Amino acid sequence: KLYKLNCCxxxxxxxxxxxxxxxVFHFAAYAAEGLSPFIRNFxxxxxxxxxxxxxxxxxxxxxxxxxxxxxxxxxxxxxxxxSEEDIVNPIDPYGNAKLAAERHIMxxxxxxxxxxxxxxxxxxxxxxxxxxxxxxxxxxIWMNQYLNGKKLTxxxxxxxxxxxxxxxxxxxxxxxxxxIKNEIINLGGIHETSILSAAKTLIExxxxxxxxxxxxxxxxxxxxxxxxxxxxxxxxxxxxxxADGLTKMWEWAKEQP
Length: 257
Prior knowledge:
Elements: H1 12-17, E1 23-26, H2 40-60, E2 65-69, H3 93-112, E3 116-121, E4 124-125, H4 138-147, E5 152-155, E6 161-163, E7 165-166, H5 171-176, E8 183-187, E9 192-194, H6 195-206, E10 211-214, E11 222-223, H7 228-234, H8 242-253
Parallel strand pairs: 1-2, 2-3, 3-8, 4-7, 5-10, 6-11
Antiparallel strand pairs: 6-9
Helix pairs in contact: 2-3, 6-8
């Protein structure tokens, strides 16, 4: 059943009341980290208040497990690769909201016995991604720019490092996470690469494109995570290399409006 609702909507109560729900996978969010300092109220409403509404319903209707996708943004400007045991110190409102949502869920576990599993994915890409939003998902942004005759924009020198992950590689681990009790788990790629290198890889895949360098922005330079815990608990395997995943996504993107 599809209910097209805002997660803050009071009608969300009826979704839980009218269905016997055992597991909740809370993936809803507006993941525009760089934009979040300029949309503060929307950011906290979209990411924190919505989670509060979900948590309340999980408690009230006896849900067995809440799986929540947080973000690597909670680590902030730490030392990469980020481990689940690292001190979290977000540098923007998006990471702050995600961290607050994590704490909110864990407190519900302590006070009300809600079982949870918190996943911290990072830089996921693939078919079905929103490639029309110019504020998030850099690989999709570049595809959209090229399709519209624009240059591929890179902030700063492009030496920022990330680890990209094809959506196909994390779907099964996300499903497995419903059986994991009260754990925080990084989920994402095992090969870090620079933003500039990723742009060049995409240009090769698309068969064209030119890079335009813009002023640096407020962001973490080195942001990628450990993956051993996800392999051990979720059976995560990095099967799709960046060029292969981008080729598949590009073929899809060319057919989009």
